[in-house]
């Protein structure tokens, strides 16, 4: 199992063509079978990786926020919602809200300082427990070089599905 981010990034760069081929391969496979492989691998690999030793997702991802999440976190931080928005939120088209800083304001020593109030995007990441894996390949592979869980699940998936490199 590889967890060193520098090693993962170097490996990802060297295997970019292989990963593109693997994505094409995955699109030809039975989607439910692939979901099952990913589920099993994720359940085995995730507990072996301590995200608090990494925090790379919080250092590199843009996070969407909804009204309920913003209200809850503003309350927890004892801030008026307008003050919370001014400090932490960027508002886009159609009312879309994003955390306005990367790395995340709430990342402290590789840990979330508002863990119980973290946003849905944070709770779901890396999303390997979700169904329809093959419909999210672009996103998954976008994070392959930055998340040890995704990296290791993908590498094991290649082996499990007998992908010919």
- Distance separating the two termini: 19 Å
Structural class: mainly alpha
What kind of sheet is the major sheet?
3 strands, antiparallel
User: What does the overall shape look like?
Assistant: elongated
Share of residues in strands: 5-15%
> How many domains make up the 3D coordinates?
2
What is the H/E string? HHHHEHHEEEEHHH
Round the mean pLDDT to the nearest integer and report it: 95
Rg, rounded, reads 18 Å
Helix content: 40-55%
Low-confidence stretches: none
Q: How many strand units?
A: 5
Strands in their spatial order, largest beta sheet: 1-3-2
User: How many helices does DSSP assign?
Assistant: 9
List the helices and strands and how they pair.
Blueprint: H1 5-14, H2 16-27, H3 31-45, H4 56-60, E1 64-65, H5 67-76, H6 81-88, E2 89-91, E3 97-99, E4 107-108, E5 111-112, H7 120-124, H8 137-143, H9 148-160
Antiparallel strand pairs: 1-3, 2-3, 4-5
